[in-house]
């Protein structure tokens, strides 16, 4: 079964992760732009970051047979950062129009400040203008209230709910999201957010419609194989393959295909791997033989 | 100047009325008591750079170098030095800042005494943005002592968003600034973050007086979220909710 991880921050991960993910069946990923663990101090660093998501990271993924898409935004945390927030909003139109940008995101609430609300609303408007769906982060703290406020803002702006993915849901927020037309993401984490057994219980209770799972793996303690691990537990727990396939493949494909930037048919095709390609003169290889198509990776290059 | 952690019962604390130079001398006395002749020499030069007219380049270097010159030991204040700081209004523990932190704080206070208000904000922000973890801690621990502290609220609120726990603790814990100057929204977020990352809320100075119905509502929602996830509810949440005997 092909798997889709619709929320993972690969710039923080290694090529070993890409290999393990591809081996476990992950064929496509969405990488949302987010914050880097400490605040950025210049707008220019966002140009390089967005450029990296659209260029080098997509290339790196392709070297392991993984289709890489991204979502771009001013993230909720840095919406409070007066040194960068207005400048990033100015930059976004130029970047949202690029190939492979499948949504505006992550946007939403973190501390639930007035600045966050202002930029959340502004970016909903940008998504309308660029005809893109949105990926909405929900806060770690005061989550239920933050989710309620997010759903209310979507409604107030008149943003089509079928083009909204509300992420990082819990037992208490999922029913709120499903009561609207929005889609519901779940980040399966080693310690916080959601775990595999709890996710299985939610699927048994709520089914598979508009429900997605992701690893949200980043630079923190996280696991890029949480989608395949959750799929394995769902299967063990007797959830039907049709339901699992909907959650781990069809739903993310359908949601992000609304951008017009993701072709479901192209995703079904076996990816062609060609590690002999270079990106701006750079390769991901460090002396190994380039893997072309199905050949095993990592064998030493003769004479290297 | 004691190790008292009686935050749970402490009211919102008054800030020192003492002028910056007096506070600087009080903090630097703890450093001088532990300094060799070479370090005293270096410190004298650093103070000269900080005083008007501020030598920006030399100040920036001295602010960074403090760690290497003074070391990071937490001093044992002599009773007279401790009493002097208390008399100047510094009633919370500062020895744990370490000799480097005390030095940096003293240098900022010296600079503050000679700078126009707008210039001081630029200097403080620069020290924070270009600082490493210990430099950022020193800035956050000093803002409460600077003239007109409320102007540093945006910097301090932003610092709470850090993922670096020692930086968060420098503003949230054993620091009177948040209880005195944060808006209710910012203060509540800080308290909830402390609960989230398991920093004991009793370390938040002036917490009791700032517990509001909204903070209780947030704490109750968090307890509910934990229970729905099949997880335990931290004792600190019970304390915020005023549940007596929530601890074993």
**Principal-axes shape call of chain B:** elongated
Our measurement of the CA-to-CA distance between the termini of chain A, rounded to an integer number of angstroms, reads 37 Å
- Give the helix level of chain A as a range of percent: 25-40%
Strand and helix order of chain B? HHHHHHHHHHHHH
How far from one another are the termini of chain B? 31 Å
Major interchain interface with per-chain residue totals? A-B, 24 and 22 residues
List the quaternary state of the chains: heterodimer
Q: Tell me, what's the shape of chain A?
A: globular
Provide the succession of SSEs of chain A: EHEHHEHEHEHEHEHEHHH
Structural notes for this entry:
The complex is a heterodimer of chains A (304) and B (248). Chain A is of the alpha/beta class. Helices cover 39% and strands 13% of the residues of chain A. Chain A has 11 helices and 8 strands. Chain A has helices at residues 15-23, 44-54, 56-62, 85-96, 114-129, 143-157, 174-178, 196-206, 226-236, 241-257, 264-268; strands at 3-5, 26-32, 67-72, 101-108, 134-137, 164-166, 183-187, 211-214. Chain A has an 8-stranded parallel beta sheet with strand order 1-2-3-4-5-6-7-8, sandwiched between helices. In chain A, helix 8 packs across helix 9 (226-236). The longest helix of chain A is centred in the last third of the chain and has 17 residues, at 241-257. The model of chain A is unreliable at 295-304 (pLDDT under 50). In chain B, 59% of the residues lie in helices and 0% in strands. Chain B contains 13 helices and no strands. Chain B has helices spanning 20-32, 37-50, 56-70, 79-87, 98-114, 117-129, 133-142, 153-159, 165-172, 177-181, 184-196, 213-228, 235-240. Chain B is elongated, with a radius of gyration of 19 Å. The interface between A and B is medium-sized, with 24 and 22 residues.
